[in-house]
Amino acid sequence: MEYNSSKSNFGSLSFGLKFRHAKCRTLKIYEACESLQDPDTEPESEPFAHSRGSCPNPEESGIAAPFSRTTIRKRAGKNEASGISGLPVCPAGEIGDKVLYAAGPGSSGNLYLPRYRLAELQLPNHNQYLVSLKKSRQGWDLKVRLEKYPYPGLPAHGLKELPHEISLTLRSSGIPEDRPPEFSFQELFRTAAGLNAVLNIPTLPERDMVYSILTKPGCGTELIVCRRIEVAVPPESKENANLPPDSSCFRKVRRVLENPIPFNFPPELHEYIFRDRNEIPGVGLICRQAGANNYYQVQDNPHIFYYLPDSFRLARRPAPPCTPLLSVRFTGRGKVNLEYTARPTTDQRRLEKDAKLLETFIPDSPDNPAGEQKVRLRPLLPEPGKLKYYLGLPGEGGPGPLRERKGAHLCLQEGIRDRLILTVPEFREVFEALFRPESAIFRGRVEVELGGGLKESVPFIARLDRMEGRLFDYEENVDASGCGEVILRNLIESPLKIRGLAAKFIREPDEVIDAKIQGSPRFRLPELPLSLKPAEERRFPVLPERPLPEGPLPFRLKLEVEGPEVLPDPEAIWDSIAESGISPESRVLTVKTFVFRDEEAAADIEELIVEFPGGKTVELSRKRSTAKVNLDLPLKDRVLHREAFELCHYTVKTVDRKGRVSAVREGTASGDLLIVEGR
């Protein structure tokens, strides 16, 4: 059965399924009927409540009372012919769910139009709405369970439900669009307690739209329950205000009444609704968010949460000296072999903080009562085939796009091991990028495939001031008098800056006494921040704030170092990563003189001898005024932009005709051409 309204009604209704238009205004639809006045009987108007007392006093309760069945029978002599016989009768007030209706002839009792609200599941410590967004064969299903209830001002017992038809619509009015999104539920199932409804969502864009309007505040999302009823109204009803004053006929009225239900569910409070959306298909993990970080909860064991590292960083060697795990080797033909290792890094403080937030995702159960939700965090270790590594390398005109490094060894637990073959200019760009945090060269990411099309990325950070590994260590001693001494030692190749120091005396199991670092006749407290050169160590006296109590176990010192900052030393880093005996880079220099073109000026000169560092020499004479020399210059000088590579140092010796050195002159030159003068 389907009713289509005229344009003035602003809507249409399909039985139990759809309400088609965005605007669901109340339909006021009247059917013409003939006068039902019985000439032998005077109309009666006293309400049923006044004659039988089965309903509260309308003046006291504010509820319109139904008409008596006697009144209905007297007035309905010809009702059967007009189709009104048997319809519930509305009182003189407006039609709605705040009034009682009188049952038609042949029935007894009062009727009410139920309201609907979201049904709840009662748990030991809290309740949950019976709403879910679940995966189905046809896409996704939004399932809702509603319960019916009478208006609070109506009698609590002795009421029957007014026959009505229902349709459900999901509507959002807070989105600035010409036509706000609206979804009609396709499946409705009546139950004794209320209604079960299903909205099938066939596509991912529609699912994401539904998820958005359900979770974002300010969308004004409501679940609209449209209730369609047919009732008879007496002449004195407001619905018959346009009839002549002496009219005594009943009229049949069809009406659609909206019952809006707020329908917004912040995911941090109602994650159970969206559990299937967050689940990774085929993996058995559910994505949970704590702060800005994602965690993955085991569906069958909700105590366990997997996490990804914060980043991958270049690593240091574990044993002193803790130099960078990089290796540079010059392979010849202008190529450089660069091998490097990166380790995963995770901030333990963020894990401790997020663990408290993750406790809310552990469901209550007899085996897991409230207050005993222990979160177990474990690193996520997917198969190697689920990892991809992308790296930015030098290219023509600047850094090129990220390129996949298919030959790199990848493991979320062990890290990254990779080898690059670069030209000398490319290697110099990479080496310089290690000192510049804003550079895009030698930066990248590890992409983790989690299943179901879901991917996560972990950044790769290659900065020499933010490497993974030990920077310092310390030794502590506590003497019999209760005084302590701490020896702090730099373990790396570059200087360290220490911003603050703090110490505590600790004794098992949980005894802690604050301490202070101060001067003494043997020691002098340095000013902070403190700088430590490579391999340098400093000694500090430590005194307890109060005398150390005696006990079976001795106290030990614990030192806390605030903000250790690495000050990278390019030359020291190069010396620690470059293999010994690395082949120098050859540079061709052309040496030329014009002295012998002037015989008068060169009368006493037999030849010019040009000497270069490393034992290379060039002899220029009247027969040979131009020569070339191959100079072997350290790659280190080129990488570090040293002057020794840019400038050529030389010594010129002038030899007279008797074979004696008559003059010696030193100089420097740049470029690939050197012009030598005689004197």
Q: What does the model show?
A:
- 11% of the residues lie in helices and 41% in strands.
- It is mainly β.
- Strands 22, 23, 24, 26, 29, 30, 31, 32 and 33 form a 9-stranded mixed β-sheet that branches. It has a 6-stranded antiparallel β-sheet with strand order 34-35-40-38-37-41, with no helix packed on it.
- β27 and β28 (398-399) form a beta hairpin.
- The radius of gyration is 45 Å and the shape is elongated.
- The N and C termini lie far apart (117 Å).
- Mean pLDDT is 78; it is low at 1-82 and 519-524.
Helix-strand blueprint:
Elements: E1 2-4, E2 12-14, E3 29-31, H1 48-52, H2 58-61, H3 69-75, H4 79-82, E4 101-102, E5 110-112, E6 115-118, E7 120-122, E8 127-129, E9 131-136, E10 139-149, E11 159-161, E12 165-172, E13 182-184, E14 187-190, E15 194-201, H5 204-215, E16 221-233, E17 251-262, H6 275-278, E18 279-280, E19 285-290, E20 293-298, E21 304-307, E22 311-314, E23 326-332, E24 335-345, H7 348-358, E25 376-379, E26 387-391, E27 394-395, E28 398-399, E29 403-404, E30 409-411, E31 415-423, H8 424-433, E32 444-451, E33 454-461, E34 472-478, E35 484-490, E36 496-498, E37 500-507, E38 511-517, E39 530-532, E40 537-544, E41 556-562, E42 565-566, H9 570-577, E43 585-593, E44 605-611, E45 617-620, E46 626-633, H10 635-639, H11 643-646, E47 647-656, E48 661-670, E49 673-676
Parallel strand pairs: 5-11, 21-25, 22-33, 43-49
Antiparallel strand pairs: 1-2, 3-17, 4-5, 6-10, 7-8, 9-10, 10-15, 12-13, 12-16, 14-15, 16-17, 18-19, 19-20, 20-21, 22-24, 23-24, 24-31, 26-29, 26-32, 27-28, 30-31, 32-33, 34-35, 35-40, 36-39, 36-42, 37-38, 37-41, 38-40, 43-46, 44-45, 44-47, 47-48
